[in-house]
Specification:
182 residues; alpha+beta; Jelly Rolls; seven-stranded antiparallel β-sheet; four-stranded antiparallel β-sheet; 11 strands; 32% strand
Length: 182
Amino acid sequence: MITLLGNIDIPQKLLDDVKGRDPDRVVKHVDGKTHAQNVVDFAFELPVENYIHYDHCLINEYCKDWYKDIIPDAFLQEHGIDKPDNVIVLRVDPATFSVPHVDKFNHALRNNPNFNVDEVVRLWIPLEDSAFGQALFVGEQVLTKYSAGDVYSFDNLIHSAANAGLHTRYTMIVYTKKVDNI
């Protein structure tokens, strides 16, 4: 389920950063470890042979440590979530689609062996208002209308994103966890 948690200010410094340089990483989604795991997991319920159509889809990622400080502490405290461990900005160019997948959180598990996947909180934050043709798909829900700085959380169901429009979409993806109440 896609849930709107609130809205934060998007600093101009962030927009200038991601629009003013090449991405830090460019990855072909179908080459990743998560994709390989999803193909096995979905083999009996989805037509995984159709993944061949996604071979051209690239993920453009921007990764800077200072991105972790963009979400105000008060917002994190209000929603009972920790300071982010991992924040990236994805650039989704026109005519780009992300492969339908379920996140495996391999990066979090690799860096934190005691990490509990059930505690993951993933935030999806558009840096600009939605434009024609831009969509986030989560399970049976589709999000097409949003404002810059809207903070969404969603369950780890099969999900994908598409840009079938004419404007590039920049989205901040935040991985953190629920606050320990011990």
